[in-house]
Write a structure and sequence with these properties.
Layout: E1 12-15, E2 19-24, H1 41-48, E3 55-56, E4 65-71, H2 74-81, E5 85-93, E6 99-103, E7 106-108, E8 116-118, E9 126-134, E10 138-145, H3 152-159, E11 182-191, E12 195-200, H4 205-208, H5 213-216
Parallel strand pairs: 4-11
Antiparallel strand pairs: 1-2, 2-4, 3-4, 5-10, 5-11, 6-9, 7-8, 9-10, 11-12
């Protein structure tokens, strides 16, 4: 059972008897670890729902912000695992095409537990994107994943020469933002009690500020 931390306050964007969708801030891990024992989304969930098992359906990196669905029971977890569609937004360096698909296999980088890379013997990974805003230094991409590999978005955009802003792990510069500029902005899924549900989360300010106001105001 996870340690409860009722002092944590993460916005709940949707809730039913089976599901809660949180708007996780950047810097908060989903699961506890050696370095993070009481400041995670799991600890927040335990404080809000005493006695329930923490069952996150989509898992975000610590520094990725946005929507994270959590099932409140085993039945909901099984149903949600096969029904969740995600839309991500990323600020990437340079000017990307108006739309495109990255189809490149991803593997674990040798001798690293965390890092991933594009390699011929990796597992197939497919990322679809379209450019929805542009500044002098960055493009804002709306991203739909056909597959769900670890670090897929970060690895794929670095592979095509457009690493995510702030993603120093994969070659992004940190001049304008100090974490990878990646946000899960939309979830669509089938809730056991409510049926088809779509939940949206606005872009956080640290990504918005990378673009001119006229380019990005519609995403606030």
């Amino acid at each position: 059972m996870l340690e409860s931390n009722p002092e944590l306050n993460v916005p709940v964007m949707f809730e039913s008897g089976s599901t809660a969708v949180f708007d996780k801030p950047a810097g908060m891990p989903v699961h506890p670890s050696i370095k993070h024992q009481g400041d995670t989304l799991g600890n927040c969930f335990a404080g809000m729902y005493p006695g329930l098992t923490f069952r996150p359906v989509n898992r975000l990196d610590k520094d990725t912000s946005g929507l994270c669905a959590v099932a409140k029971d085993a039945f909901a977890a099984k149903l949600l695992q096969g029904s969740v569609t995600k839309v991500y937004y990323a600020a990437v360096e340079g000017t990307i095409p108006e739309e495109g698909t990255i189809d490149a296999p991803i593997a674990r980088q040798q001798e690293s537990i965390i890092l991933r890379c594009v390699r011929e013997d990796g597992r197939r990974a497919v990322t679809h994107f379209r450019r929805i805003a542009l500044s002098e230094r960055y493009s804002l991409a709306e991203i739909h994943l056909e597959t769900g590999r670890t670090h897929q978005i970060r690895v794929h955009f670095a592979h095509i020469g457009h690493p995510l802003a702030g993603d120093d792990m994969y070659g992004g510069r940190m001049d304008d933002i100090t974490r990878q500029a990646l946000h899960c902005g939309e979830l669509t899924f089938t809730d056991p009690s409510e049926g088809q549900v779509r939940v949206r989360s606005a872009l956080p300010e640290d990504i918005i500020k990378l673009f001119p106001k006229e380019e990005i105001s519609w995403k606030k």
